[in-house]
Design a protein that fits this description.
- The protein is built from 13 helices and 12 strands.
- The protein is α/β, with parallel strands linked by helices.
- The protein has 3 domains: about 130 residues, Arc Repressor Mutant, subunit A, CATH 1.10.10.2910; about 60 residues, no CATH class; about 120 residues, Immunoglobulin-like (Sandwich), CATH 2.60.40.
- A 4-stranded mixed sheet has the order 1-3-2-4, with helices on one face. It has a 4-stranded mixed sheet with strand order 5-7-10-9.
Amino acid sequence: MASSTSEAIRNGVAKAARLHEQLGSQTDMVAQLGSIDVFDTISQLDITLLLRPLNGLLGAYLREPAPGILITTQRPLSIQRFTAAHELGHFYLEHKPSLDDEQVLRRSPFQNRGLPDLQELEANTFAAAFLMPRWLVMQHCRQRGWTAVDLQDPDKVYQLALRLGTSYAATCYTLQRYNVIDPSVAKELLAAEVRTRKQRLLGDFVPENYFGDTWLLTEADQGTSISGSRNDLFVIRLKEHSSGGYVWNLDQLVESGFLIVQDTREALDEQGVGNPVFRNITAHLEDSNYGRVDLTEQRPWQPQEPLSKLSFDFDLSGPELEGLSRADKKKALLAA
């Protein structure tokens, strides 16, 4: 194990990169951009993983009689994922057994902050580097046209965090680590409230609660894979050329199990005549937990010639429930 802070950080980052190389993660993400499936990785490595309502713990790593991981069912999906990556780090770095509480979240990845436990720093660094490798952060930013200046905006950082499947705070720390933002900007971002990000997106629509995340989807999300939770909300913002007779067909959104709770149009140019408008659709999943959405902008009398499209796969069955992970259940089903 590492004997210094700098060595622990180097080890964590290097081992995360090595595992991604072993898995071929970057190649897979070129085919369909999404988040790193840490539960699937644990399943591929044949590590026993169980989810339980752990009191006072987020997770645990055990070595006897065989390597195993426990993850709490009492936290949101992003925290389950980070905890799972942390425990995976203990395994991959050949650490001693560990019982991990809220301190996992309070520690800034890549920083020791005076904490003497180098094993925990090493595992935390591994978790951040595994879930948020630089190449994945850059891929998401390139797809959406985000620059370093854009990532000073808490709304955009929140959306990046959703696509990485990580918490807002962990994403801020990682952007600072990659020198995308400086420490003063990171401090300002960390002071921004996530609930405010959700309220800004939802506008006049007020949900029953703000427990779920709120995704902003645009045509830049074409072909992406979304992994979230059952109570997430979606604001789909699309440019519509209605003056030319083109409208977005939302039938397939409903057929995929979504309930549309708000549908409005917003002028791009209040002074212009015949200019495109923005179509803002707010929806949440009502039936099923996973599937695919294919939206097209077309003239009703020319459905075979869409002007634009937005297609994405979604899995909104999180957070992970008690028992085996979804990845292990799928693996067992395929083996049956």
